[in-house]
Specification:
CATH superfamily of the largest domain: Acid Proteases
Structural class: mainly beta
Order of helices and strands: HHEEEEEEHEEEEEEEEEEEHEEEHEEE
Organism: Rufibacter quisquiliarum
CATH class of the largest domain: Mainly Beta
Number of domains: 2
Largest sheet: 8 strands, mixed
Protein name: Aspartyl protease
CATH architecture of the largest domain: Beta Barrel
Length: about 325
């Protein structure tokens, strides 16, 4: 499950992506490795489930995955803030110890799962290598068919070149190569797919801006800078304060309810909460302030709606 460490990385990328100060150095720094996934060219609708954390029933969007030769169903967090799919070391080693064939190869400080095959909701995927993070425990309830074990994060390399439909109401993710004929061309807008990150143009309270679409950051409906947050804050409203750990550094998240709206084309969505992080440092704050990006959003903003992403033509639509 996405930790505050990953949120920090997504937020840092958001800050430097379009800033003049970030320049070519930052773009090169955050440029993802070449896509290693080979996804079968067949249409499929994959049912998803939600991971619950504390009082948050939408903390993470999970897709079922099975590994070649292993009958148990595991889960990957669907994470559009991650440009490359990763697996978690603890779970993979537990699967190995159970006797299932997985090849883990250490190259310097990096471990990879090599020559692997798996299925995401029945959609076959192969890869010569996938990165393995030293993350997570090795506990697996092998005899409990209903157990939910997250063994990694499914990134935007899985989406590249396909048409993706996220139906939040029916809890299904469809991967295909054809746009639905029922949706008119006028419903679509352009979006940016830079370094395998998705930037959606929107109008927040009448202001044109871009939002980094990060499904791994479900905790926050909108993560933005302090000045924007202050515009949204309602007088007399309770501010929810939470401390999060980002790479060993403690940040403070301030969340407030708002009456703001987010418009995508002809569809207007209520923006119920907004959050800003304190403690990210002067440079990050300045980049966020002047980059022109409105912030980062995830699943919560689109609950009850459908988000369609044409990754080939870089067009998207929000459907009621």
């Amino acid at each position: 499950m996405k930790s505050a460490k990953r949120i920090g990385l997504s937020f840092l990328f958001l800050l430097v992506l379009s800033s003049v100060g970030g320049g070519f150095y930052f773009k090169a720094k955050f440029k993802p490795a070449a896509n290693q996934l080979k996804v079968a060219a067949q249409p499929v609708t994959i049912p998803f489930t939600w991971f619950t954390s504390g009082n948050d029933p939408y903390a993470g969007l999970l897709l079922p995955v099975t590994l070649a030769g292993c009958p148990k169903t595991f889960y990957l967090q669907f994470d559009t803030g991650t440009p490359s799919t990763v697996f978690y070391k603890g779970k993979l080693e537990a699967i190995q110890q159970k006797g299932y064939a997985l090849t883990l190869k250490q190259a310097g400080n990096q471990m990879n799962l090599v020559n692997t095959a798996f299925q995401v909701g029945g959609l076959p995927v192969t890869a010569p290598e996938v990165k393995v993070l030293a993350y997570g425990d090795s506990v697996i309830s092998w005899n409990d068919a209903s157990s939910v074990h997250i063994i990694g994060s499914l990134g935007t390399d899985f989406l590249e070149g396909r048409i993706i439909t996220l139906d939040y109401q029916r809890m299904g993710l469809t991967v295909s190569d054809l746009l639905p004929a029922s949706i008119p061309a006028t419903a679509f807008q352009d979006f940016t797919f830079d370094s395998r990150r998705i930037l959606l143009p929107s109008r927040i309270n009448g202001k044109e801006t871009d939002l980094l679409f990060d499904t791994g950051s479900s905790t926050y409906e909108l993560l933005t800078n302090k000045s924007t947050w202050e515009e949204f804050a309602q007088p007399g409203q309770t501010i929810d304060t939470a401390r999060v750990n980002s790479w060993g550094k403690t940040l403070t998240a301030y969340t407030t309810t708002t009456k703001a709206t987010a418009r995508f084309g002809a569809v207007q969505l209520p923006l119920k909460t907004a959050t800003y992080m304190e403690g990210m440092g002067f440079m990050n704050s300045m980049l966020m302030r002047f980059s022109g990006l409105g912030g980062m959003t995830g699943n919560k903003l689109f609950l009850g709606h459908t988000l369609l992403l044409d990754m080939k033509q870089q067009k998207f639509a929000v459907l009621k």
